[in-house]
């Protein structure tokens, strides 16, 4: 059964991760996606290891569900090809800085002149306006600018970047949502619109809960809303603001503790907990340990100061023993998975996240499925990532080019 976006035609002119991830998701939902690459290919084709055969695993993962066309946008002939393709699509996704977009005639005024019904989404690092609008950006740059590394690492040590491309991937998700909202609006008005999404804005939005907890809004009736009283980056490690919780090492792994149950409100249970962990004698004369609420969790008064003591008590147990211990005391703890543990977990298997797809040169390989489960119009893998220029002739024929015209474009170096 076709996906919910079966009739939506998408032209993907983006490279990297954010834009292609957005169009991959559109394809998962059934949209017909054509990816336009330069003659040398999307630069992510060279990212690795890992490689699957000669293909970048990262490129293959976020460019499935697409037909591939290779066009030289530096040449007038190449720009005319893209202009013709623009006439028949519902969505176009780009990732150009304003000056570059105008140079390629891919800014929204130029796109709108070709197709007033198109929803044009442009993805950038820093936005369309301001002093950094035309500057190149990257995942680590935006993470650092948006303060994300401050939530990792250990107090006093250098910051640590998030291990996944949280800026790119979440910006791709936001682009998808903006596009779908604009398509719904087009049903009412008959016209498309420009959707601007940028990585900096996305990361700031994702931290809204954190910054709300860190700041106090001062409402000045005579002026704009301002933000003040920022909580400094202290070793409180409060779970809602600076969640730098490294968990605890066990004999064979690591665990994180989310809930401490009713221990804090029961002196008897608290003492029993300390006894069973073998740290009761060690802490009995330490005033910090007088009240359970003062030492339980990173948000407590002394939680980070006494973390090593808790760690010594837990280091004598295996992960399974530690989890059983906390469950018996009405507390919530979880093991920290590594890659093999995650994909061996029966819960992961039950949600059908790992799927197989067949590639023309690599063969069958495993990939991750769509994040959605539609009851009536299921999201599905439409096919593997294209080889460079694999569908150029097919797509151009569908756009009305004759075999002679296609041959002429190839001879001129405008297509591959």
Structure description:
The protein is α/β, with parallel strands linked by helices and 416 residues long. It folds into 2 domains: 9-205 and 349-411, 3-Layer(aba) Sandwich (Rossmann fold), CATH 3.40.50; 248-335, formyl-coa transferase, domain 3. 35% of the residues lie in helices and 15% in strands. It has helices spanning 18-28, 57-62, 76-86, 98-103, 108-114, 139-145, 166-189, 199-206, 208-214, 267-277, 280-283, 307-314, 319-328, 339-344, 346-350, 392-398, 403-411; strands spanning 9-12, 32-37, 51-52, 55-56, 66-70, 91-94, 119-124, 194-198, 216-218, 226-228, 248-249, 254-259, 332-335, 354-359, 363-368. The strands form 5 sheets. The chain has a 6-stranded parallel β-sheet, sandwiched between helices. It has a 3-stranded antiparallel β-sheet with strand order 11-12-13, covered by helices on one side. Strand 14 and strand 15 (363-368) form a beta hairpin. It is elongated. The model is unreliable at 217-239 (pLDDT under 50).
């Amino acid at each position: 059964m076709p996906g919910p976006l079966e009739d939506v035609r998408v032209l993907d002119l983006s490279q990297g991760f954010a834009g292609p991830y957005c169009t991959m998701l559109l394809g998962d939902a059934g949209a017909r996606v054509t990816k336009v690459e330069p003659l040398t290919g999307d630069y992510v084709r060279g990212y690795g290891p890992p490689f699957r055969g000669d293909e970048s695993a990262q490129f293959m993962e976020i460019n499935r569900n697409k037909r591939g066309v290779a066009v030289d946008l530096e040449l007038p002939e190449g720009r005319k090809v893209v202009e013709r393709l623009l006439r028949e699509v519902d969505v176009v996704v780009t990732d150009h800085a304003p000056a570059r977009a105008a140079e390629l005639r891919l800014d929204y005024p130029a796109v709108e002149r070709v197709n007033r019904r198109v929803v044009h989404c442009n993805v950038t690092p820093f936005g369309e306006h301001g002093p950094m609008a035309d500057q190149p950006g990257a995942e680590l740059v935006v993470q650092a600018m948006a303060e994300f590394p401050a939530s990792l690492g250990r107090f006093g040590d250098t910051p640590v970047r998030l291990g996944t491309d949280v800026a790119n991937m979440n910006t791709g998700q936001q682009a998808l949502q903006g596009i779908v909202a604009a398509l719904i609006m087009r049903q009412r008005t008959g016209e498309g619109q420009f959707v601007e999404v940028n990585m900096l804005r996305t990361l700031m939005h994702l931290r809204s809960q954190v910054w709300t907890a860190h700041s106090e809004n001062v409402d000045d009736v005579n002026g704009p809303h301002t933000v003040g009283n920022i909580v400094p980056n202290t070793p409180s490690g409060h779970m809602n603001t600076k969640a730098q919780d490294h968990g605890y090492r066990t004999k064979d792994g690591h665990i994180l503790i989310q809930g401490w149950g009713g221990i804090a409100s029961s002196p008897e249970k608290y003492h029993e907990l300390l006894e069973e962990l073998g740290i009761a004698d060690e802490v009995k004369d330490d005033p910090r340990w007088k009240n359970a609420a003062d030492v339980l969790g990173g948000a407590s008064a002394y939680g980070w100061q006494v973390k090593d003591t808790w760690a010594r008590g837990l280091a004598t147990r295996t992960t399974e023993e530690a989890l059983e211990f906390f469950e018996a005391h009405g507390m919530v703890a979880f093991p920290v998975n590594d890659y093999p543990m995650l994909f061996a977990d029966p819960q992961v298997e039950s949600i059908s996240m790992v799927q197989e797809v067949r590639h023309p040169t690599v063969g069958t390989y495993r990939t991750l499925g769509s994040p959605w489960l539609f009851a009536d119009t299921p999201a599905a893998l439409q096919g593997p990532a294209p080889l460079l220029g694999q569908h150029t002739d097919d797509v151009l024929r569908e756009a009305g080019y004759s075999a002679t015209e296609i041959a002429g474009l190839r001879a001129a170096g405008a297509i591959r």
